[in-house]
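Dear Dr. H.,

I hope your travels went smoothly. While you were away I took the liberty of generating a structure for the chain from your last submission, since the lab meeting agenda had it listed for discussion. I wanted you to have the full record in hand beforehand rather than looking at slides cold. The sequence, exactly as received, is reproduced here:
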Amino acid sequence: MIRSVSLSTIKNILKEDGIKPSPKRGSGTWDEFLKIHVDTLWQVDFFNKMIWTPTGLRQAFVLAFIHVGTRRVFCSRCSFKPDGKWMISQAYAFIEQAREANLRIEHLVRDRDGMYVREFDQVFKDISCRVELTAPQAPNQNAFIERWGKSLKYECLNFFIVFGKQHLDHLVSSYLEFYNEVRPHQSLDNQPLTGAWPEIDEPLSAGEQIVCHERLGGLLRHYERVAA
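The corresponding predicted structure, in token form, is as follows:
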């Protein structure tokens, strides 16, 4: 009889049953998988927003893909009805966008949401991309796109009452442009995704100006020196 349980107790029981204790269980860890495939690995997820329409409040959905290596994000236009036909069309549209950006697609991680129809997965299998499902109730395995969704909501969508699909598409596309092109990222030493800011050690000279670029009425901003 086991009267008290500790980490060592669990470790010994696992070893007796031929199971390697976590995190070194099996042929590799999840972290190792991410590092090995980072240049060709994508994650996908749905995001939703309640918006006002002529018939009242309705829930609109957006499908977003993130490239784990570069953190580049691609989004669909919103839909009230993300059915199988819509899902397939978004899969093809994403593949075309990724190819235009010269980003390879070999692994796609998604959760087990029922909105992912079999035909959606097949579109990616047809281009030799493996669709990897996360474990049940394990959002940490889709952490990159989950975190982007929180940024979208807390830095943009939560500040607006949205009227119609076009309004939501405008908000998402504006934030997406800001995120992909000029937003500083902590994981990149506060540099943007599309390239580093120029390193300037000299202080501002007399008469030199800093210009502020605004999006969405000043909610999203970035600053730069006026070119000489």
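Two observations you may find useful: The chain is about 30% helix and 20% strand. The CA atoms of residues 182 and 192 lie 5 Å apart.

With kind regards,
E. W.
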